[in-house]
Design brief:
Length: about 150
Amino acid sequence: MHLAGKVKRRLVDEINITPLTDVFLVLLIIMMVMAPMMKMTRMEIRPPEVDKGAALDPSKLAIEVTKEGVYYVDGKETAPGELANVLRAAAKDPPETRGLTLQGDKESLSKYAVAVFTAAREAEYSAVTLAVGVKSVTPAAAPAAETGTP
């Protein structure tokens, strides 16, 4: 029995891959353009500047780092490998209240600061104060500090 007006359709079992190919080509071009740019991107860390902050605590141990990676603990040059031992020897307070101040050159690499944080953790210091620059220099402005845990 065949109904009038009913057309028999054939099932299409083919997939049109042209749009899929176009999408993959666009993604390939985007990746080819972005890959060299991602290589060239380099993280440069600039020291933070603050509007105001607390004055540095002179009773805390001071560590200075030059842009060449030379460490000075309370004004005495210290080898990077001996930093944890020097910090441990200089510790006067119990571990819960130990603190130090890190002052870095504007152009010093972040790996030098990370080495200080690592040495402070090994020497059981509970806080490291990061000395930063002040945006507007006024006669009443003191060096600002930002405190964190190692």
